[in-house]
Every structure is written in structure tokens, then in C-alpha cells.
Specification:
By secondary structure, the protein is mainly beta. The chain has one domain. The chain has two helices and 18 strands. The chain has helices at 144-152, 242-249, and strands spanning 2-3, 13-18, 66-67, 71-74, 81-86, 91-95, 99-103, 113-114, 118-122, 125-127, 157-159, 163-167, 170-179, 196-201, 206-211, 216-224, 227-235, 253-255. The strands form three sheets. Strands 3, 6, 7, 9, 11, 12, 13, 16 and 17 form a nine-stranded antiparallel beta sheet that branches. The protein has a six-stranded mixed beta sheet with strand order 8-1-2-15-14-10. It starts with a strand and ends with a strand.
Length: 256
């Protein structure tokens, strides 16, 4: 279960919090899974962008497109410009300057909770304070290296070895993350299950994200505009969907 908060009109402040624990996390770090390097996708000249002028069905969610047709799409408000490819039925219920969201077929618009897998993109992120307060960790920089190093050193997390990646023209590092077995975590505001802090959005990307024991995720931290752009692939089954979700990330192409 993922809590998604939007307290401000015309912007989104979201708490990406997995708050239901239904599966045990592994005792040790997951085996490193090497994400395939993602180059800019090549599209046939006859393939139109499917949502060139979408009408967002969710208030205060920017230019989101709702339920998507199969094929190539372009984000509206999100910066940097993002082009992506999805199968039929995937949904886009948030498309703001600093936050972009994709969910699999059958997903409901995010209200207080998201109970399905999802892929989120945030323009600018930082490591989250270890006490679950929705603010950057003190003394930790915002470069890709700073954030990845911070996360890999957190004993409450099981983190794979960082892998160099290229996604849609941006370079950086990818890691797979779970909550470590036996980790106590903390109880973020609005949560019912302890979780471990991961990252927060800064600037136009206003959110905070923690992980609990039932979720596996793959995070891509990419160099962008002097800071770090993050792609979070959230698998609420504990890992069985990661590869399928990562295949969609491989289609991403960013353009300033």
C-alpha cells in the first residue's frame, strides 16, 4: 500500500510509502541484478504520439493522460521532456513539472493510497533523513554518488551493488532495494507499518518515499541539471514484476 498525498493545488506533494507488510524481506542484500543499459528508443516515422494533447482526468495532476493506448507517448508538463512506450491499458495519473507517474492496467487514480506496482520519475531528489521526517538527510549531498553511497550504507536496507546505467540519454547508477530482514524502521506520518526512509523530492519534486518489507524496488539515479533525477520502479509483489516494469523504463527518452 502506497500513500500518495497532494496537499497543494497546482503541485503534488506525495508520500510514497509502502505501509502494508505481507512478505518477509531477505536476510541479506538481494543478488545484484544488472539492469540493461537503456538507449534512446527508435520509433517508426509513422508512429504518432498517442497523447499529444491529453486531458488529465485527475484534479491537480497536471497534464496527465489517464488510461493510455499502446504505443509511444510524450509527457506534457514533466521536465525534462520525457517520451516513453507502454502496452495497452497502462495509466498516467500524474504529470507535473517535477513528478511523473505510470501504473499498470487496472490501476485506480492515486488517492490516499496506491496498492499496485508503479513507476515514478522525479526531476530532483535527495536522500531522506533516517528518522522518517520528510526532509533531506543532513550532511548528504545531492549527486548520484552521494545518494547511492548513503543508501548502500544504511543497515536497515538490503541494497544490491550499484550498476552503471544509461537511461534515455542520462547516465547514472541503478540499485535494487528491499527493507532488510529484522529492520525496525520508523513510522512515517500516516503509516500503519514501520518502514525505512529512502529519498525525498526537492525543488519541483515534492514527495518522500519509504520502503517496508513487502516491496522490492529498482531505483535509477541519473545525473541531471547538476543534481539527481530518480526513476523508481516499485514492485508490490516482492520482486516478481521487476523485470517487466524495467522493460518500460528501457523505452524512456529524455530531452531538455
Amino acid at each position: 500500500m502506497v500513500s500518495w498525498r497532494r496537499p497543494l493545488a497546482a503541485s503534488i506533494a506525495c508520500l510514497l510509502l509502502v505501509s502494508a507488510c505481507t512478505a518477509k524481506a531477505p536476510a541479506t542484500s538481494p543478488s545484484p541484478t544488472v539492469p540493461a543499459a537503456a538507449s534512446a528508443p527508435t520509433f517508426a516515422a509513422s508512429t504518432p504520439l498517442a497523447n499529444a494533447a491529453p486531458t488529465c482526468p485527475v484534479s491537480d495532476s497536471g497534464s496527465c493522460a489517464g488510461v493510455l493506448t499502446a504505443g509511444t507517448h510524450r509527457a506534457g508538463d514533466f521536465q525534462p521532456r520525457l517520451t516513453y512506450v507502454v502496452p495497452k491499458g497502462w495509466t498516467n495519473y500524474a504529470d507535473l513539472t517535477g513528478i511523473f507517474l505510470l501504473q499498470p492496467p487496472g490501476s485506480a487514480p492515486p488517492g490516499n493510497y496506491i496498492t499496485t506496482d508503479f513507476i515514478s520519475v522525479a526531476t530532483s531528489v535527495a536522500a531522506e533523513s533516517a528518522d522518517c521526517s520528510p526532509q533531506p538527510a543532513a550532511g548528504v549531498g545531492t549527486s548520484v554518488e552521494d545518494i547511492v553511497t548513503w543508501l548502500t550504507r544504511q543497515r536497515r536496507l538490503a541494497v544490491s551493488h550499484p550498476v552503471a546505467v544509461s537511461v534515455g540519454g542520462l547516465r547514472g547508477e541503478s540499485i535494487d532495494i528491499r527493507m532488510a530482514k529484522g529492520a525496525k524502521g520508523c513510522l512515517p506520518s500516516g503509516a500503519t507499518t514501520p518502514a525505512v526512509p529512502l529519498i525525498v523530492g526537492i525543488g519541483n519534486s515534492s514527495f518522500n518515499h519509504e520502503i517496508d518489507g513487502r516491496v522490492a524496488e529498482r531505483d535509477y539515479f541519473l545525473h541531471y541539471a547538476g543534481g539527481t533525477l530518480a526513476i523508481e520502479v516499485i514492485d508490490t509483489t516482492g520482486g516478481s514484476h521487476l523485470h517487466r516494469l524495467a522493460d518500460i523504463v528501457k523505452t524512456f527518452h529524455f530531452q531538455a
